[in-house]
Fold these 2 entries.
Entry 1:
Amino acid sequence: DIQMTQSPSSLSASVGDRVTITCQASQDISNYLNWYQQKPGKAPKLLIYDASNLETGVPSRFSGSGSGTDFTFTISSLQPEDIATYYCQQYDNLPPFAFGPGTKVDIK
Amino acid sequence: QVTLRESGPALVKPTQTLTLTCTFSGFSLSTSGMCVSWIRQPPGKALEWLALIDWDDDKYYSTSLKTRLTISKDTSKNQVVLTMTNMDPVDTATYYCARIGGGSSNYFDYWGQGTLVTVSS
């Protein structure tokens, strides 16, 4: 099965900062990579699909890039409402799917 | 409007079988490309994908849990059922169902609110 890693596991940044999270797959997954935001006590919310496509209604400060095994998720200007844990998820055409271990983002 | 809602017992005893139901609206699981998955999250831990059933009744399972899981659907009732046998305290988690809405991309675009299942004697 494909394994996913994320770094960092947590980060603290100031409002307005640029935040970058990386996700790595254990084998080539092309662009089959999605990003979700989860706030405490809530279900995850889709932000980015197919590595770089912004889900409808998601603010443009969120973006994603990458292909193959290495992917990046960026918040261009961190806002207080962005405090959450962010997960990458691979799908590689068919299941089994896999989520990364998550990155917790806090305000400094 | 797409909605999903999980239901099932809040507490199960070790060795028991867990049965969870996902009741959805706003789409049909008989439509080509539609899928429903189960995903769980132990308290304070990461998301873990469990199982998926698609419009064609194809079923897929987590490699590590496939001997304990069964997923099924009742298209007429708009329901997907997950059973997990031989429950253990480490299976304590919030269990979510989520939809994949068709097309060539497999992303979870709608989620239920989750149901917390505690395994304890």
Entry 2:
Amino acid sequence: EAGVTQFPSHSVIEKGQTVTLRCDPISGHDNLYWYRRVMGKEIKFLLHFVKESKQDESGMPNNRFLAERTGGTYSTLKVQPAELEDSGVYFCASSRENYGYTFGSGTRLTVV
Amino acid sequence: KNEVEQSPQNLTAQEGEFITINCSYSVGISALHWLQQHPGGGIVSLFMLSSGKKKHGRLIATINIQEKHSSLHITASHPRDSAVYICAVSGGSNYKLTFGKGTLLTVNP
């Protein structure tokens, strides 16, 4: 089966601009997660979708971050406007119930 | 204090050595995950375990629920094992992961 696909793999934007990250989970995986690693820190949870519904968005840093999952398929994470502290690697993962995770390769976001 | 603590943070070994990476956690969990990330690469799930021991090739993962501790062992280490190894735990019904900071393993030829 195809893996979890994320794009872009890298993005460099200026402070104040908007960036949209996309994640295509494995087909049939109802659970989709966004995580983020900022430099020197551990990976942190951002939010969890079950199909198209947000199950838990307790990790979203602030209202500059907006996540959607259209029709329970792919998901987007938009940062608007981006700030310097948003730089990091954003990982998406999907799972089918509690059968373990498959991670994407991540999007490295640099805000300058 | 992080809910998931790994040790050591950095580990350098010679090819062929037996490697152990430790993970302790302070919360109730439904499962513990060991993940691997090669430099510049994505995250690969190695093991998900809730009790006992699992083995895959040269990798062995154990967990002691009472002591809230897990170990990842690599036998006959090889330079291609060089990577960051990350311990993460999931608990509750939504399966979200809480991560340790990772252990950077370097295996020299």
